[in-house]
Amino acid sequence: MHAMTILILLPERDATDFSLLLAARNPNLDIRTWPDVGDINDIEYVIVWNHPAGELKKYPNLKVIASFGAGVDHIFKDPDLPANVTITRLVDDSLTQQMSEYVAGVILNHRLHLTTYREFQAAALWSPKHARSGNTVCLLGLGKIGLSVAAYLNRLGFTIRGWSQSPKDIENVKTFHGEQSLSDAVGNADYIVCLLPLTTETENILDKDLFRKVKKGAYLINVGRGGHLNEEDLMDSLYHGQLDGACLDVFKTEPLPDDHAFWRHPNIHLTPHTASVTNLEKAASQIYENYQNMNNNKPLLNRVDPSKGY
Amino acid sequence: MHAMTILILLPERDATDFSLLLAARNPNLDIRTWPDVGDINDIEYVIVWNHPAGELKKYPNLKVIASFGAGVDHIFKDPDLPANVTITRLVDDSLTQQMSEYVAGVILNHRLHLTTYREFQAAALWSPKHARSGNTVCLLGLGKIGLSVAAYLNRLGFTIRGWSQSPKDIENVKTFHGEQSLSDAVGNADYIVCLLPLTTETENILDKDLFRKVKKGAYLINVGRGGHLNEEDLMDSLYHGQLDGACLDVFKTEPLPDDHAFWRHPNIHLTPHTASVTNLEKAASQIYENYQNMNNNKPLLNRVDPSKGY
């Protein structure tokens, strides 16, 4: 009989709750939580988020690395990643719905000056402002999440432009692809939203070259990864008024260090990586289903293409 | 030939811009701006917002009172309003669109804790919270604006309940009507939004009787009129935790006095009557069209029923 072993390798969190949700699906599972790994030969299937580099090559029988979220950049940044192992990620309708609501909420907040009025309130200042009228949103990234955000914003009456690495044809979205068309994509937009996977091609894509091409007064929303953003270039662009402001949910280092300048910048709003949060129940179902697929030699769901990195 | 006289009676604003927009439609118009009225016998058509009580009965030939906004409560509160005068209001797609965006923006702001994170930011506090999941919105008021807000929120996936004085049948909205069903309407809602006209029946409708019937932790949005809200009852309900918070755009006295307790309440957010702002171009078009209708003995657009008060 098969060993039924799953390793949970989530160094940043107490995995007790997730372990119980997996056990509820099959009480015979042998669930181990890193660093209490036991016999390394037992480990064929591992659930990871930000594992220590080099750790995964220690398991001689490893077959599947399951990311504990939608992103897999945290896996590929390990230079000693074992070859010929299947990598999967979570795909979850609630993740795409959360992301759509976050992007729409941030855009409407900016358009309606809700945060500004809250700041006026502290000074008992009654000072009406015109709502902003800019209506064009450029989405960088047109994967499942990008498509969902585009459809959601379309329903609210926004005009959507979208950019991706490879060509796409999407209803009600003016699409652009490839590095040379990035400036055309962002050029006319009032809001620029980064929803890209983090790869060597997209690292630091939000930099001074891009900010020089945006419409004066545009607003940036980064819900991709901290690695997409050149932080100094953002500060410069805000200083010179090219960008009007930014809302950031992801950072190069999380939690953002106490002394980071972003905390105190009046035109940078930040949220603590909450735009889209893994639902534990759904994650447990999807991860257990793929574990069964592995054992039954069935194709795995939501496989990642290592040559693309997403 | 007809005198072509229009009186602008907008004591709270400099009407120069609006006067120019009307003149652009017909250079032969004799546009007068209160208090420089000239011969009171010339005045058949007046544009008003918050006129001094008793002023309108001074004009013996007055035929039409045109409200400078969607609401007409400011007209009916005059105890000396002349009888047998036609009253009209502005109906403007941009007003309904603005209101929809405002209500959605406030709901998403609350759901995503955007203001809370902004307050955390001042203290460099990284403290992720779960997004709120409550999805049911009760709209009080199902006129043109209420219908538009309902459709907009439906497109975002919210479940809509609606209450009005008279029965309505609206797709995708569970409707209630009449005073006795108000508690059923608000009972299950996560968000309660007041979009009612202000009449003797709806004055102080947002009071302790209603707040006792809401779900614990519900959130109130008042974009009707300040007169809909019993301010002390709101403070009590927040103190006892029945309501989680409120966002108010309208107040009994505007601007809200400096020493008003709402300015300093942590769970009351306020905006300075900006949820829906009259577009001057559209207002000028609609008001001039009705002026022509009056002169040509055609039916006027957007007449108000004085027996209902809206």
Commentary on this structure:
The structure is a homodimer. Helix content of chain A is about 30%, strand content about 15%. By secondary structure, chain A is of the alpha/beta class. The first copy, chain A, has 2 domains: about 110 residues, 3-Layer(aba) Sandwich (Rossmann fold); about 180 residues, NAD(P)-binding Rossmann-like Domain (Rossmann fold). At the A-B interface, α3 and α4 of A face α3 and α4 of B.
Distance between the termini of chain A: 34 Å
How large a portion of the residues of chain A is in β-strands, by DSSP E? Answer: 15-25%
CATH homologous superfamily (4th level) name of the largest domain in chain A: NAD(P)-binding Rossmann-like Domain
- The spatial strand order of the largest sheet of chain A comes to 8-7-6-9-10-11-12
How many domains would you count in the coordinates of chain A? 2
Structural class of chain A: alpha/beta
Please give the radius of gyration of chain A in angstroms: 21 Å
Spans of at least 5 consecutive residues with low confidence of chain A:
none
The level 1 CATH classification of the largest domain in chain A is Alpha Beta
Helix fraction of chain A by DSSP (H/I, runs of at least 4)? 25-40%
Shape of chain A: elongated
Reported for the largest beta sheet of chain A, the result is:
7 strands, parallel
Number of strands of chain A: 12
The oligomeric state is homodimer
What is the averaged pLDDT score of chain A?
Answer: 94
CATH topology of the largest domain in chain A: Rossmann fold
Name given to the CATH architecture of the largest domain in chain A: 3-Layer(aba) Sandwich
Helix and strand element order of chain A: EHEEEHEHHEHEEHEHEHEEH
Largest interface: A-B, 43 and 43 residues
> DSSP helix count of chain A?
9
